[in-house]
Amino acid sequence: AAGVIQSPRHLIKEKRETATLKCYPIPRHDTVYWYQQGPGQDPQFLISFYEKMQSDKGSIPDRFSAQQFSDYHSELNMSSLELGDSALYFCASSLRAINSYEQYFGPGTRLTVT
Amino acid sequence: QKEVEQDPGPLSVPEGAIVSLNCTYSNSAFQYFMWYRQYSRKGPELLMYTYSSGNKEDGRFTAQVDKSSKYISLFIRDSQPSDSATYLCAMSAEGAQKLVFGQGTRLTINP
Question: B30 near B15, Cβ under 8 Å?
Fold first, then answer.
């Protein structure tokens, strides 16, 4: 079965640079979620989108922005990167009409800020 | 204090043992309870999902929710070395989008 696709899988950036992470949800899933997982930490919710509209917001820094496109893929844009932004960034998707709590995660993008 | 507390372990048991993993929580609004399995450097994989109180069984896995005690459990029967992973509990309130995760328990099944 098709899963959530994330790209790139690894990304190395320097401080103050910009990064863009992409997420392609499971086909027919209409809701996308972004989570950040620091080393040895549990995933922390950043933001979610349903039908291209922001549906919930968590502890996402103002330096970060995200959007969902008409084909339901999503992009997380991160500017003025800081060392503390180094983490695994997961995208998850769900079919809201069925169960938005049944979220399926992608393999993650490992961001390293140097 | 975190909304969801989970013993990080590590937990090491022999193959074939019954494993019990637990989480407690403080937010009485939580209605949906999930268990995820995460292998090293991989994304969390949804194992079980339960709504409100009760039990749910899927093969060797059983999830239990006791809302009166704010306590959830995952039992793994006939544990296998391939079950070695970090197990994360996650919860969500009605109408909320985000999942709130526990810290995760690192489990090792020894052959």
Answer: no
